[in-house]
Amino acid sequence: MPNPILTSIADRVAWVRINRPEKLNALNSALLNALHKTFSELRQQDEVRVVVLMGAGEKAFVAGADISEFAEFTPEQAHTLVAQGQEKVFDFIENLGKPVIAAINGFALGGGLELAMACHLRIAADHAKMALPEVSLGVIPGYGGTQRLPQLVGKGRALEMILTGSMISAQQAFDFGLVNRVVAADQLLTEVAKMASQLLKNAPSAQAAALRAVKAGYDPSQSGYAVEKELFADCFSTADFKEGTQAFLNKRKANF
Ligand code: COA
């Protein structure tokens, strides 16, 4: 069986490719486990500062959870599937502590769009198509889609997408604020690499703190403002803060 996830690391950027193109990279349990393992390793690797996630082949980022795998599930099995998936993959990626860019190289449907939304930034090829079509299968999004989509595009647009299940184009996704950029398909990797290199210029500990502070604002059990104050103060004890401020005062580029 081919490796379900292909990872290569170059210049502090890890390129993670979901490798099941014959099934449009649909997420089966083997893939979810492999994604968890891959992201657990990348979290530990300090030399990796930015992660890019994409699908193998030219047709799909990820065409959803593997429908053939869950079609016969009981409610208990379905609960376990999404609870584990959210914890081990979707929330895990959002909480990785380093920026993750989704390079949306084709269909991002259902769990595929939810995976892209768990990433922090999204760049789409112009042929990409996005949807949460779960209601067409008699189910709702279960990997955070009912939460992250309204956060990104607003409740009205999210409900339209979730209730109709209709596909939107990359350009519409950009107009909605669902993706950060739309680029020609043959420029996708170049544009993603450009964004990664912009991220690499800045302090990783500050980026990790910013990711946590922004996330806290969407967590009803936390006060985003209080978390921001704590994390702001914590920054003052970091080597990155010393380097950033000293570089500015000495009129040189910071080296993070
Ligand atoms: N789960 C399981 N298998 C899937 C899949 C999914 N979510 N999405 C695609 N596949 C499989 C197809 O069954 C097909 O397998 P086969 O060649 O063994 O028959 C293969 O991937 C290629 O897909 P196909 O449907 O032939 O491609 P297409 O170009 O005609 O259509 C899509 C592309 C994306 C429109 C179509 O595959 C689709 O609607 N997929 C399901 C999308 C979805 O509902 N996702 C949400 C799941 S919660």
Word description of this protein:
The protein is an alpha/beta fold. It folds into 2 domains: 5-200, Alpha-Beta Complex (2-enoyl-CoA Hydratase, Chain A, domain 1), CATH 3.90.226.10; 204-249. Helix content is 48%, strand content 16%. The chain has 11 helices and 10 strands. It has a 6-stranded mixed β-sheet with strand order 1-2-3-5-7-10, sandwiched between helices. The protein has a 4-stranded mixed β-sheet with strand order 4-6-8-9. It starts with a strand and ends in a 7-residue tail after the last helix. The mean pLDDT is 97. The structure holds coenzyme A (COA). The site of coenzyme A has 16 residues, from helix 2 and strand 6.
Which SSEs are present, and which pair or pack?
Blueprint: E1 5-10, E2 13-18, H1 29-44, E3 50-55, E4 60-62, H2 67-70, H3 75-94, E5 100-104, E6 107-109, H4 111-118, E7 121-125, E8 129-131, H5 145-153, H6 155-164, E9 168-169, H7 170-176, E10 181-183, H8 188-200, H9 204-216, H10 224-235, H11 239-249
Defining key terms:
single chain; 6-stranded mixed sheet; 11 helices; alpha/beta; binds coenzyme A; 2-enoyl-CoA Hydratase, Chain A, domain 1; about 50% helix
Outline of this structure?
With 256 residues, this protein is an alpha/beta fold.
Q: What's the count of strands?
A: 10
- What is the correct CATH architecture of the largest domain? Alpha-Beta Complex
The strands making up the biggest β-sheet line up spatially as 1-2-3-5-7-10
**How would you state the average pLDDT, rounded?**
97
Distance between the termini: 40 Å
Instruction: Write the CATH fold name of the largest domain.
Output: 2-enoyl-CoA Hydratase, Chain A, domain 1
The Cα radius of gyration reads 19 Å
Dominant shape: globular
Percentage of residues in strands:
15-25%
Main sheet record: 6 strands, mixed
Counting helices, strands and paired strands, the structural category is alpha/beta
Please name the fourth-level CATH homologous superfamily of the largest domain: 2-enoyl-CoA Hydratase, Chain A, domain 1
